[in-house]
Amino acid sequence: MPAVIQVIRTIRPKYACSCGFDDCKFHIAPPEPQAIPKGNASAGFLAYIATAKYADHSPLYRQEEILQRIGCDLPRTTLASWMIRCGDLVTPLINLMRDKILEGPLVYCDETPVEVHKGTGKKPTSKNYMWVQAKWGGIGDRIVLYNYDPTRQGSVALKLFEGYQEYVQTDGYEGYSALDKIDGITLVGDWVHVRRKFHDVTKISSKSEKAQLANIALNYIRDIYRIESEIKECSSEEVLRIRQAKTKPIVLAMKTWADGLKETTLPKSMIGKALQYFVGQWPKLCYFLDDPIVGPDTNVVENVIRSFAIGRKNWLFSDTARGAEASANLFSLVITARENDINPYDYLKHIFTEIPKAETLEDCEKLLPGNFAKAGQ
Hints:
By secondary structure, the protein is α/β, with parallel strands linked by helices. Helix content is 51%, strand content 12%. The protein contains 15 helices and eight strands. The chain has helices at residues 43-54, 60-69, 76-89, 91-101, 154-160, 191-204, 209-230, 236-262, 270-281, 287-290, 299-315, 321-339, 344-354, 361-365, 369-374; strands spanning 14-16, 26-28, 106-118, 127-135, 143-149, 167-169, 186-188, 318-320. The strands form two sheets. Strands 3, 4, 5, 6, 7 and 8 form a six-stranded mixed β-sheet that branches. Strands 1-2 form a two-stranded antiparallel ribbon. The longest helix is centred in the middle third of the chain and has 27 residues, at 236-262. The protein is elongated, with a radius of gyration of 26 Å.
């Protein structure tokens, strides 16, 4: 059955007063707070548009066509304006999520390009970036934050982690190196990116001497992940014991192998670059051996970035910087809801209904995805 657009008519009684004072002649019931004051879009309709774009990757021009087929003529400019206003509306929730994500003890971070045409001070085809932070726990304790910025400079990482004091796990991008100089922050490396460097060598020729060397590294890494798969359900104490007993000798053996090989390998060759990357990330790659809180990779944040990348292939770009910021806010809520097993549409409809009524910090905290999940709504 196709979707149906309904007009909801709200009748507000108007009463005359018999007190006789000129300034007290009429009384009318106050309107219900709306996500977009004086707008004609209900919370449910706004949630439908946002879910279609940010969860189902449907661009606004495509939604415009879908709505036209059911007799609703809404230009994409109107839909875009609504999404920007909704993105602004949920800013208090985003700020609270940012506070919670920086409580530690481990935050993953990565970044991906996004094209923004206006309001950046750059050419329309220049790369802008969506920086993504993720904090992972059980259902109800997972937070994903998308942060738009025109640059990929290390100053952005410093801003995102201002006041933070625990582990930050990233790939080997040099922009994160500034974090390693801050007291209290421990920058952790990523074994998946190490593996990717060696795997790229084997793509050229699987039978070459360089590929055979790369396969040695891949076998070491395969052994590391085999052990990780065996300890998924173990307690923290058991994870630490097994990593120390079984994984650490493998890691040290790979480092010894790489040290002996890199002096005789051309540094600009693919195998040479892979070896340099691995050795350059040492000892960031070893922290997971000494603390069970830390894992070997950043797969958590790479998986949530994939959702953004799929959407980007469909809608291609953001027209303005303000639109990119609004998208970052709404993506944060949609993906955080999804990762906590919450229906994104149900959550957004609840948010767009209740946040206009919120008056205190406690009111906003009740609307966080984690609290929504724990309340079983």
